Amino acid sequence: MQKTKRKNSGASDQSKRKRRCADQTEDDVYSDKSVFCEMLNKAGFILTNGKKNNEIGVDQAVLQRSLNLALKRRNSYPDVLEDFLQGFQDYIENVSRFYKSLMPTLTSVECESARSSTQNSLVRILLGMDIIQPKLVTLLLEKLPEFVGDDDNIFEEGEKVFLPRLLLSQFRWLDRIICSKDLTVKLLEIIEVTSFDVQREIISCLPEIVEDSEHSDVAKTLRDILLQGNQLTVPILDALSNLALKPDLLTEVRGSVMQTLDSVEMKDLPVVVKFLLQTATSQDALEVVSEIRANLSFKSSNTQKKGTRPGSESDVTKDNEALTLDAIKAGIRFQKSIAEAWIKAIDSLKSPADHKVIDIFVLLILHSTNRRKPVESLFRNKIRTSAFTEVLLHAAFESHGQILRDYFPSILSIAEVLLRSPEPGILYFACAMYKQAFSTFDTFCQQEIVGNLVTHIGSGFESEIDSSLDILVDLVQNHLASMAPFSIFVKGVLDYLDNLSVIQIRKLYGMLSQLAFHNPQDGGLVQDDLHMVIRKQLSSDNPKYKKMGVIGAIMVCKSIAFTGNQSDETLPSDLSKQVISLLQLVRTSSSRMPVAAALFMDELSAIVGLGQKESEVETWIADNVIADFQDDYVVDIEEDKLTSTSAVPLAVLYGLNDEQDSTIAIDLLPLVIKTRSNKSNNDLNRKIPDPLCLCPHFRLVQMCERHQQDGNLEGIDALLGCPLYTVKEDAIAKFESLSDKAGEMLCCTLFHNLNWFRRIINCFATQTDPEMKGKVIMRLQNITDLQKKLMKCLAATQQFQPPPANFDLEDQMLKVSSDTAEVKKKGRKSGKKKAKGKEEKENVDDSDEASRDSTQMDTDKGSPKESQNAVKSDNKEEICISLGNYRQYFRELDIGVFTVLNTGLISCAALDSDLNTKAVTSLQISPPQLEFLLDDLSQKLNHSLIASASKRRTFLKVKGNKNAGFHHLDQLSRDEIAGKAVQLLPALCNHLEATSAFFQTMINDNDGLIDGPGYDGDDAVLMTSCFHLLLQSLTSLFSWNGFLVTENQPLLKEALCILVGRIKTLGSTQVSFQDLVSIVFQYLENFAATVPNISTAVTLIKLLGALTAKVDNQKLSSKLGGHAETFLKREWIGADGEKEKGAKHNDSLQSIIKTYLTYSDDPLVAAETITTKGFSELIESDKKGCSNTFASLNRWSFPVFFRVVFSELITYIKSMQPVKSSDSREVKVDVLIRWNIAVRILHILVNLIKTFDGRSIVGAALKNGRLFVDVFLRNGMPVLDKMFRTNREEVQSLLKNFQLSTRTLHHLSSHSKIIRDVSLTNQVPLLKRALEQFVYRVKAMLTVNNCLEAFWLGNLKNRDLQGDEILSQVSEVSENGDKSDNEEEEVPDDEDSEVEMDNVSEAGQEKTDQSDESDDQSCSDVF
């Protein structure tokens, strides 16, 4: 049945065709008397009129053969060809007929042997005939210039038909081209005389028309057209991409395309980038990528303004940018070399100013293509070096948020990884990423971000929790409406309060309170949960939960009643009652727990000081809280009380008021005694004022008084000079004779005493009344005196647990660490001389182990303050107590206290002998008080103003709490803290100049010697500490990464102007930012001459480096390198008169050496100077001698110099730019010379192992030697490849020197196996593998240059560092061993050999047995 149906169907089609042919009239057929029409009709081709397509009665191959035979059989052949083509030309003069001759032909219904119902067009059929093809091609191509405008276009079914495109399509993929050369030439000539649209069509068709043999000529012509800078970039690059070109020509074409990158239009950029990346090879991928990156700025895209219509220019630009990134993504995804080149190109950028938004985009693309580890590592490194800043991140999100949306998963993943970093600078950047993403992306992304942050809170890591909470708090404050839908996510954290600290709970409750009481949509649900949780916590007897309840209640009251700077709208009565009842509940529930009561007052005073509050709430606070202070802590002075017997003698001390005004005192010691007695008797029902609440209670009193009296504190100024019932001076002197209980009470009283004075200073330091200022300074003196007394007492009672002063710390943070005191023997040194020598050697060897981050701003590092904390006794022991370990037990100094610095400085040497009355009356602080204030200021600035490269947080448990002493400071923003620090700059400069003048006077008195008589005196030690802390404070300020933000630039300029004013009057003239930095640099470098110790020198170097980083000024960099060199040429003497040494000294020295090598005019020359002069002079000196050029280089500091010079040498050769083919000969020779210098330095360094064979030095040589070989293989050998033919002798000399170094490295590997040090032998396999790769790499270079006969193989014996053969490792001789031995005997010694390279034949295999080691041989490749 199926076959019958098919036959019937075929018959039906045939009948239809016959009917259509019968219906065709003579008017439908085109005919004239030309040879063209005649021969076509005879061959079976029907030219039709009207809109019908031409018909063909036979198959097109039969037509071509018939027409071919007919033309050849003509008597007039070959002249008939001209007549035939003339007829065709006349036929196509009509546009409609020309169009039909280009369209497919219909097969006649009478034809049953044709291939299909439609066949090729008439033009394509004629092009398939060899005898007429050449002339027909010329005829058709000459038609192209005629199509200029739209006049010649025709419309088919309502659509415009572009005839040139249709015509050129006839030439595509022809079966045979007779004269391909002529066709190519003709096409290229036609390009010059046709219109733009036709040119574009011709260029697009070229790869499909011309033969492969002509591709080179086509590429050269297209390259020339491209360089003319017209609008044909896209079709030319499309054509070039499809041409089969030789590598040399392709490189040349690609170079020409790269020349146009800077002028290419944005719309053409995606195609250009795609072409460059597709044609890049692994050898030149880095060059191509670097050029693309240099010309991609994406600066033209700005945020879309309101009212901008869709499809505007900004939208088009963003689309083109997205397409460009897609092209980069395609290149990265499909070519591994392109991905690696992008990573190298971004990693090689050293200056922060060189980085662009495109770098972030590319790294996100790389991260999305499964290259997460290198991208995350690169992100960290760039953040550490200030290359990736918040400013750059803001620019990326602000202008290209739509593009970044496509890479949201990568952004979230990178931010998540960075948030787990222990480095504050990286954490800060991660927080910025989260905030920018939340404010830029849609609701789905916002939900993912909030969920991710909540997950971080549950991680259990403190830094992650802190950062996540900080981000959420910022989002709630700045994007409350956007955060409101996700309040349910944040509320879920309430289930995990046990894992949070008190400080973290404060942030959580503050955030939830805002979501609950400022969110009209879902706030009710959160309010109910908050009230339930808070009341449950307040009713608990557990101090931890009660603290949580106190903080939660205060945060709720803050959200309801304290309006800050908002309008004066009154609070509804029901909310006022709610706040008052909640405060009453907190007060009642915490009354029996002093720690909770103190926390309640601290928290309440913190929010009272924020601004406006409801009047009813303010009245309640004044009536119920403030009034209790005088009743609890202020008493009248009674003589009978002083004569009462107690375990600790009582006295009224520290009164500053007149005798007639001194009728009241703070009842301190009696309350301490009563409180301890009450606790020992377990009498919890008896309410006694606890001294713990003294300072928090007074803080609340002060805040309310300041708010009510607009800052005037005269109502409570009697407390400033009020005396205290405290411990007698005699009791402190006889401390060791007291009982343990009395000693603890005495220490406890001293802590409360110090905290009271600190609270008093916080209260009255900002007052302008001269009498108050004088009393504040006296209180500072009381603090410094009391601290000395407290250290003596603590040294005798090391197990004493001080009373808490910061009540939002965890209990485990309020325990004194076991290492707060160190006991050192005095007097004669014990031990034999041999043991001493061994100890010194171990000190030298271990001093340069993995050191801390050189950028760490440790305020205690190298500070002479430690020497003051040493309390000496008569039993030949020295007990060192550092109050820095007790920071959590002291009340925090407010930032306003440092206004006291404006009162000036007077040194102890300049004070009058008449009881220092002049210093008191002139209101000048003395060095001990200055040091106390500067120490606290430096730590505050270091804590708040995060530097670009800051200290690294360890994952280990640290003693104390990182936020101890900074809780009030953290309530201020970093911008506010920086602004207050800038206001202190005039006072800091005054003290800095005075301190420098002190040492300058000492130098002048000692005939130019800074370490002369008086160098280790008490005054000098104090002034040294002040000098260091002053520079540390300035360094923390100017290193702050917040100055990179545009909004903070005016503040930075203000700070610079203050320092500029110290040496120059600005007036009304405008000074550029770069000039300001230069003048400030000049001002600060003047202090280099009076730097007393190396730790202060390092701080000054960091300060100058922070200024240098703010501008691109080579002159400043050179000056910085010069100062570092000066410090290296100075011999540093410690306070004991001996040369400084030890781990801290080595860390400082490492920082200076690195600065010298980094900022020198030529780092390579600087490294060569140290190796050739410094090390040589050290070798020639005696055991205790030093280098004449670099006085800081001695036997103890040599490991530091060796390691830093070696590592910086590798850093430098990594940064050396590869040689390009387009570089001039002079550039190539200069690169070769620099490689020669680097190899020479390597040779010196590795040969120093023969003299200095310490473990750390050997380890550094093995590691850095292997790194040098690896970098030389990647960057150095390509240079030698290109220079071998033109500079053979120079290349040979370089390889010879390098071979000497590799031989020494091989001996070093053998030495490491002999001594059987695991840490050293672990480096050996990697080193041997690198040496083996080097040998075969050189062999490949010689093979390419037809010099393989110069390369031969021999055996190299294993030797130790001194060159002696290791007999235990003699190799077993194989069957052909005799021949190898003979060859080895012919090899000359190191000094006389030609270029010879060492390598291990079995690299990568580590053998521990002696028998295995005997088989471990290496080969010597000589050429």
Overall average residue pLDDT: 79
Total helices: the number is 59
Spatially, the strands of the biggest sheet line up as: 1-2-3-4
Name the poorly predicted regions: 1-23, 300-310, 823-876, 905-921, 953-960, 1369-1423
Q: Give the strand content.
A: under 5%
Shape: elongated
Whole-angstrom Rg: 43 Å
Protein described:
With 1423 residues, the chain is mainly alpha-helical. Strands 1-2-3-4 form a 4-stranded mixed beta sheet. A hairpin with a 4-residue loop joins strand 14 (870-872) and strand 15 (877-881). Helix 14 runs parallel beside helix 16, helix 23 (443-457) runs antiparallel to helix 24 (462-478) and helix 53 packs antiparallel against helix 54 (1255-1283). The protein is elongated. It starts with a helix and ends with a strand. 41% of the residues are buried. Residues 1-23, 300-310, 823-876, 905-921, 953-960 and 1369-1423 have low confidence and may be disordered.
Please give a handful of descriptors for the protein shown.
three-stranded antiparallel beta sheet, 59 helices, disordered C terminus, elongated, disordered N terminus, 58% helix, 18 strands, single chain, mainly alpha, four-stranded mixed beta sheet
